[in-house]
Design brief:
The chain is built from 36 helices and 27 strands. The protein is α/β, with parallel strands linked by helices. Helix 4 packs parallel to helix 5 and helix 23 runs antiparallel to helix 24.
């Protein structure tokens, strides 16, 4: 080690460890000073050197000339923060009681203070007023608008119901859970090399590899001395890793992770010299003060990975462990090259994991959090071939603030989820068998439509319009079991899940006896638990919901599970009768529902002409009532027919009556309203186009998402060139007489009341009808949201505010005489608080046991590859400008129909996080001949959406990251 590096290390060991800063904030009169004094006493009793800084005392004695405007208060608060930083750097704890409710202050503190605890103290206005009379000048929270910290370490309500001593008891317990700075805290972040050197030999849970560290200027001045030192340690004959240690990386202010190279596999003087020269050239400090360090390289590791000790996207208290146990390399995860990546979420409130290696890795993460006095770290580790756990790197982790919810709120919410999943596992007297399973994608796939964490208004509207009762009414009407009193959707602390047992039950034909039906539901649950990746395609891969040309062959699989021939025959008979009622003949059920969609469109026109005198909330109510009765109810039936159509179409391929290319030709020839959107955009005047399609919005149920006609420039540039023909001419599928006769005979043998002509007409009408029905009913929903937004603005609420309200509040206002503003304000406040917790939670796509709420591994999904084409291009998100879409591969979180606008811009392909085999976007990709990967899942979508360039090969079911 060079003299400079050795001096730095010695100074680091001699310097006092940084003290902690306890920042107690809240409005005037909340009780900050009293709490601060009691906390100081607790810290002194724990043998901590501590100083008290009181904002009022500082203003009076040190800064008497400070003003009271927002700008002056902010400047003063930043001075307080700087004083705290100076004192803490000398090894003292600081308890600072100050209003300082400014984001600039919280951000500065978190960036600059290594051991920072933020305590928010709240009190009702009348309590605060009694404690502290109004001061001269503008008052914070009254005259000066402020916000509460987004993610305080502790929130205390000082409403007078508890003594100050009880409050400090609660605070002390909360700080203990968060890991307050303790006398044993010795670590602080310096350069990467210095941080690791300070930990070498001092960790209880892992080893740190030895290192030779030197500054770039030392290398440039005397490279031979560095190489001689490496030779003296006997390292040059073994594989080494040469790593950067710039002053600007892995520190308090910036991560710069991956910016500078690390070079592995260096053996011998020439290779080491070349590696050092390459890294030295890449480091930014012109004076050569950046460091480089060399370590023995671990080879043939058993496992390597990265641990985030908090969820960086949400702030949730999850340890997220991404690991690789197949490559034998230490950087497979960080480089993105891991062929088999495992991602584990383990909440802080979960019991210790049973897997020994995972338990060791989490113990290392906890020890590092304790030593650094913070709970958000990014830790790289490896388990060597010798079974030893090695710390490779540790850096501060930047965490997205999720305001309004505390760690305790989060833990309590997960405890309720745990309990609710346990309750749902109990058998119900009015429900058939089956294991308790909750899924984000089966059946009416809420994750696809709403996303993983929808806001309360969107979630409550989806339940009202579809999943509380409409779905079950229509399924009963179509000949399935009656589940009308069973909500399909379960909200797990705001995360929407389908009750899969209820869904499986609802696919049992109504005329099957209970015993046989229960066995079927149990079998469906067994299949899904055996094949979790099928959760987004249960109607195709798991359940028997209709008759197909290969039904008997499919039912044969039941024989292995003890279903007798007579059982299978009864199931087949029921499914054939049900399928014929739904699809066959001019008066079949789905055609009757097509007529109801026409009635909805008539009522929409009449409503627009006659409803002007209704009050806004009445218009919202009646638009949604019509949407249910004439929109989502028949849509649920038509969508069921479309699912049946695709299964019959697939069975034509499975039985050799159609080629797969002919199946795609048939789908490509469909002419739904949505397939004509590009044509309408190119051919119609803009005003006429918007009258026809302007009600669409990405996020159909989300009031904050602008409609096409509200912000057309956001979705469409000047008239785009017509791109509807990108997949070639829409030639219809033509079959000769011999093929038609073969299909006729197969249909008769399968018990389906169709000939080839009527079958393909029904298939076309069902699939096109589903898209047309969706286009129609979303107009009622979208108009209702637009009226609500306008009415809310008149009451002083933004769209963002209204997104937190519940539909129940709107319905109650329509039926009563309560004050609209007060009711909405209460609903918004409650919804905002609940959603703040929702944003911090993560659950797996399938929940099959209560403990899944606390610890789970994300499954590697099996995406749905649409078509056989391929594409290559840059990756952009749906927020890209229209001109950036041409030739790009678009990453879309959910396969929502409101994203149809992207097809007007000649995209190369698209990938979705959520979505199933028969989703809207799958159909659109087939219609337009666009390569697509639907429902990639969290792991793959995260990797692909973060790439710069992808190559998609649907025929070979492969996606390759090119850059």
């Amino acid at each position: 080690m060079t003299q400079a590096a050795g001096t730095a290390a010695a100074a680091a060991q001699a310097a006092p460890s940084a003290g902690g800063v306890y920042w107690i904030t809240g409005l005037a009169g909340a009780g900050k000073t009293t709490l601060a004094r009691l906390l100081v006493a607790r810290l002194r009793a724990a043998a901590r050197p501590v100083l008290l800084l009181d904002g009022d005392a500082l203003r009076e004695r040190v800064f008497p000339d400070a003003g009271f405007t927002r700008e002056e208060r902010l400047a003063l608060a930043l001075r307080y923060a700087a004083i705290c930083e100076l004192i803490a750097a000398q090894g003292f704890d600081v308890v600072c009681a100050t209003i300082s409710l400014f984001p600039e202050v919280w951000r500065r503190n978190r960036e600059r203070l290594s051991s920072y605890r933020e305590i928010l103290l709240r009190a009702p206005p009348d309590v605060r007023a009694a404690r502290k009379p109004r001061l001269n000048g503008p008052v914070v929270g009254t005259d000066i608008e402020v916000a509460e910290p987004p993610s305080p370490d502790c929130v205390l309500d000082n409403d007078g119901s508890r003594t100050p001593e009880q409050l400090v008891d609660e605070l002390w317990r909360a700080l203990a859970r968060r890991g307050p700075p303790s006398p044993g805290t010795t670590a602080s972040f310096r350069t990467k090399a210095e941080t690791l050197a300070a930990l070498e030999g001092r960790l209880d849970t892992a080893r740190v590899l030895p290192q030779q560290c030197f500054e770039v200027r030392a290398w440039r001045a005397n490279p031979a001395a560095v190489l001689d030192a490496l030779c003296a340690r006997g390292w040059l004959d073994a594989p080494l890793i040469v790593r950067s240690s710039a002053r600007c990386e892995d520190g308090e202010r910036a991560s710069q992770a991956g910016r500078f190279p690390s070079i592995q596999g260096c053996r011998g003087e020439a290779a080491v010299r070349a590696a050092i020269d390459r890294i030295a050239a890449a480091l930014p400090d012109a004076e050569g003060r950046d460091q480089i360090f060399v370590q023995p390289q671990l080879v043939g590791v058993r496992e390597s990975g990265v641990v985030f000790t908090r969820d960086p996207a949400s702030g949730g208290r999850y340890a997220i462990v991404c690991s690789d146990s197949t490559s034998g390399a230490t950087d497979a995860i960080t480089s993105g090259r891991a062929a088999e990546r495992r991602t584990r979420f383990h909440h802080a409130s979960a019991p210790a994991p049973r897997a020994p290696d995972l338990a060791r890795v989490l113990a290392l993460a906890r020890e590092l959090c304790e030593r650094f006095g913070r709970d958000a770290l990014d830790v790289e580790y490896a388990i060597g071939a010798d079974g030893e756990l090695y710390l490779l790197q540790v850096r501060p982790l930047r965490v997205e603030a999720a305001g309004g919810a505390s760690d305790d709120d989060e833990a309590r919410a997960l405890a309720r989820v745990h309990a609710r999943v346990a309750e749902l596992g109990a058998l119900h007297p009015y429900q058939l068998g089956g294991a308790p399973i909750l899924g984000a994608m089966p059946d009416w796939n809420p994750a696809e439509v709403l996303g993983a964490r929808p806001r309360p208004l969107a979630l409550s509207l989806y339940r009202e319009l579809v999943t509380d009762g409409i779905w079950a009414y229509q399924r009963r009407n179509y000949g399935y079991r009656d589940l009308r009193s069973f909500p399909l959707l379960v909200s797990l602390a705001g995360l929407p899940y389908v009750d899969v047992r209820t869904s499986f039950h609802s696919f049992v034909p109504a005329d099957l006896d209970d015993a046989l039906g229960a066995r079927l539901v149990d079998e469906y649950a067994r299949r899904l638990l055996a094949r979790p990746p099928d959760h987004d395609k249960v109607e195709f891969a798991i359940v028997y919901s209709c008759a197909t040309l290969d039904l008997d062959a499919r039912l044969a699989a039941l024989a292995e599970q003890g279903f007798a021939a007579d059982d299978r025959a009864r199931i087949a008979q029921s499914l054939r009768a049900l399928t014929n009622r739904i699809t066959a003949g001019p008066r079949c059920l789905f055609r009757a529902d097509l007529a109801k969609i026409a009635e909805l469109e008539r009522r929409q026109r009449a409503f627009a002409e006659r409803a002007a005198n209704l009050d806004p909330l009445a218009r919202v109510y009646w638009l949604l009532e019509d949407c249910k009765r004439y929109g989502t109810l028949p849509f649920a039936g038509i969508a069921r027919a479309a699912f049946i159509a695709l299964q019959i179409l697939d069975s034509l391929v499975a039985t050799g009556l159609l080629e797969r290319a002919e199946r795609e030709q048939f789908l490509h020839s469909l002419h739904s309203v949505r397939a004509g959107l590009e044509r309408d955009l190119a051919e119609l005047p803009r005003a006429q186009f918007l009258r026809r399609h302007g009600h669409l919005r990405p996020g159909t149920y989300e009031i904050t998402s602008p409609r096409y006609d509200e912000e057309p420039q956001r979705y469409f540039a000047a008239h785009a060139p017509h791109s509807a023909a990108r997949g070639g001419a829409r030639a219809p599928l033509e079959l000769d007489a011999a093929r038609r006769a073969r299909i006729d005979r197969a249909l008769a043998a399968a018990g389906l009341e169709h000939d080839a002509s009527s079958l393909f007409a029904a298939l076309r009408d069902a699939i096109e009808g589903r898209e047309n029905a969706k286009h129609a009913f979303t107009r009622s929903l979208s108009d209702a949201l637009a009226i609500l937004a306008e009415h809310g603005r008149a009451l002083g609420f933004t769209r963002d505010d209204l997104s937190y309200a519940e539909y129940d509040a709107l319905r109650a206002l329509h039926a009563g005489t309560d004050d609209a503003r007060a009711v909405l304000a209460r609903s918004i406040e409650a919804g905002r608080a609940r959603h703040a917790i929702t944003r911090r939670l993560t659950l797996p796509p399938l929940v099959t046991a209560p403990d899944d709420a606390l610890s789970f591994e994300l499954p590697n999904a099996e995406p749905n590859y649409v078509g056989r084409a391929g594409a290559e291009g840059p990756v952009v998100g749906v927020g890209a400008r229209p001109e950036e879409l041409r030739g790009a591969i678009v990453a879309i979180p959910s396969a929502d129909p409101g994203h149809d606008w992207i097809f007007a811009h000649d995209i190369a392909a698209f990938v979705t996080l959520y979505g199933g085999y028969n989703s809207h976007m799958s159909i659109r990709a087939l219609e337009l001949g666009i390569p697509a990967v639907i429902g990639a899942g969290e792991v793959l979508y995260g990797r692909w959406s973060a790439a710069q360039r992808l190559r998609i090969d649907c025929a070979n079911r492969r996606v390759e990251v090119l850059a």
